[in-house]
Structure formats: C-alpha cells, structure tokens
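Protein in question reproduced for absentees:

***
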Amino acid sequence: IMCEDWLPIANLRTGLWEMLTSDVSALRYDPVPDRYDPEKFTVTATLRNTGGANLSEVVAEVEWTDGSGLDLIEFDTEYPGDNTNPKTRGVLFPGQEAEFVWGFRLKNRNTTGTTQYAVFNVKYGSRETPYIPNGCETSVEIDPVTTTAICDVSSPGDFILFPNHPNPFTASTIIRFSLPHAVPVTLTIVDALGREQRRLLDGEYRQEGIHSLALDGSGMLPGIYFVRMTVGETVHSRRMILVR
C-alpha cells in the first residue's frame, strides 16, 4: 500500500516598508548675523523588507516641492556622502533595512515674508514589489528673512502657541494658545505647501489667558499640516500630522 502525504511550501510573500525623515525640522533665520542656522540638512529614506523573499533592484528617488516659487533648496554639492538620485540597492534580504540619504542646502533666501515649507517625498520599489510614487512625506520649515521670525518656543510673557494634542491625530485635536493681554487673534490651518485649509479665528478679539479650540479634521486629507497663529506682526507656527 502506497503512503501519501502533503509537503508544505511556505508562502514567500513580498513587502517593502518605507519611512522618511529629516535631521532638522526648520531652517531658522537669525537677523543679527544675517544668516540661516542651519543652512544644510539631510533627508533619509529607510526601506525595510517586511516579506519572506529577497527583494532585488531596490530603488529610492527623492523629490520635493515648495510653494514659494523661489527655488529655496537644492542638492548640497559639498555633501560628503553619495548624493546620487535615484539610489539603488542590489538586494534586500527579509527583515533587512537599507538607508538612502541625500544632502540638501539652502539655495535662495525666503523673501516672501511668510514661512515656507519644503515638502519631501520618496518614490520607491523593487523588481518584486509595486513601484510607489507617493510614499511618506516629511517637510522642512524655512523662515522668512525678517526681523520677526516664526518660532516654536516663546518666553514667559509672550504670545504662546502650545503643541496641539493629540498629535498625530485621527479625527480631531485641541489647539491651545496663551495671550499676555487682550488682542485680536487670527488662527489658520495650512497644508505643507502653505495653502490655507481652515480659518478657526479671523482677527477675533480674545482676552488675556489660555484659550482652547477644537480642530475637526473631517474632510482633510492625511498628511502634514501647520497651525499658524497671527497676533499683529507676530506669527507662531506648530506642525501637526493627520493620520487615518
């Protein structure tokens, strides 16, 4: 009598995970020495093989946009590492990660009078996985060349815009700010390209003290946004992330 049995064969599924980060969040303008600090930064894409099979011909290509029209940043020609774009990796084994790093520098000063944002995206894929043209995003804030720079940290007695909570948020988040005296306040939500998405306060007179407002994220696409508080000529900005 012949005996029969089944030989199991593992399913070697494929998967490629991506994360995009920058080593700085903002290029700050200092009016005293009349320069930006820092003027250079790096953007890093991390790709991880989350499947059970080798991935070959892994590729990552960085691209960026800014809504200023001034061509604010460029590749750093003095970057000591490999600054080719796109970058490739011959093979990525299961569970293995690969980092792709690009060096950038400020090309032109931000003379628009308002904060601008360079938004980065990495297109990536491999021979065994789909090519993803819109992966994770990260952004770098670029101060305007003025004596009143947008800031994230305020000293006591100043107008203070606190970090929103929760952040990241999925549906709604609370925005808090403090006023040392009664004053008209404008509070807007802009996307990473500086386009206004919500206007929570429009020159509304608010008394001294701490104030809270709820932001309803319904109808907003997932991504990076900035809450911007304007009091007279003073502007404060905070970054927030909407996820689904």
Observations:
- The first strand starts at residue 16 and ends at 22.
